[in-house]
Design brief:
Distance between the termini: 36 Å
Strand content: 15-25%
Number of strands: 10
Strand order of the largest sheet: 1-2-3-4-5-6-7-10
Helix content: 40-55%
Shape: globular
CATH superfamily: Divalent-metal-dependent TIM barrel enzymes
Number of domains: 1
Number of helices: 10
Order of helices and strands: HEHEHEHEHEHEHHEEEHEH
CATH topology: TIM Barrel
Largest sheet: 8 strands, parallel, barrel
CATH class: Alpha Beta
Radius of gyration: 18 Å
Structural class: alpha/beta
Amino acid sequence: MATLAASGAAIEAMGLSPAIASKPKASKIKFGVQLNAFPIDPKRFDTFLAALGQVKQLGYQGFESGFANIQEQFTSPAEARKKIEDTGLTFFGVHIFLATPRYDPKTFIAPAALYEPIAQGGKSLGAKHLILSGAPPSTPEELQQKINGLNAAGRYARGIGLNLAYHNEYESATSAEELEELYSRTDSKLVSFLLDAGHAYRSGMNVQNFIRAHSKRIVGIHLRDYKADGHLVSLGQGTFPLQAVADTLKQIDWIGWVENEEEREDHSHTGLEVIAPAYKAMKEAFAS
């Protein structure tokens, strides 16, 4: 397991400093990270805690995790929750993303038989949100089924003290159209949104305009970046309009979580190597 001292040395070796850990000037905006970039073994909770240690040392204020990373802790959560809370990080949310065939064919999101125990387990570990991704519907009838499914999931989450946030996947013009429908037709009291601004950008959406139109229901924003050829790169090194998005969020006085999500096509998990420069890019964009 990586120690905090080792993490600090690694950060300095990259030309960064643990002193970078000051909060962004836009105090209403909090910085989080999706843990996908870290080499976490779901069978070893120490690897999860090691990732949190690095996240904290860089300067992030919270994190989001896929459910597989924490599912082993659901049977006896008290000790695990204390260790998470001792990091000083906010557990923004537990995320359920599945391969398309595993989504409920009636609702195009995770089946209730999965999201209900995940929501309960995440809540027991201190998570604030249940985050659901989903598959794209093909017809108006299927879209209505997805809307109904999200409302039902939101009702369940609220009943146990969590907030539901839908996370958009897929990168096509139709996904942008679907997202507009979900914002306008789901119950605003039950369904919030974790906008993946990178996916939305790849779909051709004007992310800044979309944020201005729907900011009241957006509780978090995922940031990711791409080269002109579409390959993923560290935030700030591609074509994603990071500064324009940051300026928009500050201009509208938005309150919420901005989360960096560093994923790669080869599914590599290089942790600090990609997370550290991404944090630096975020901090600079929101401080200017």
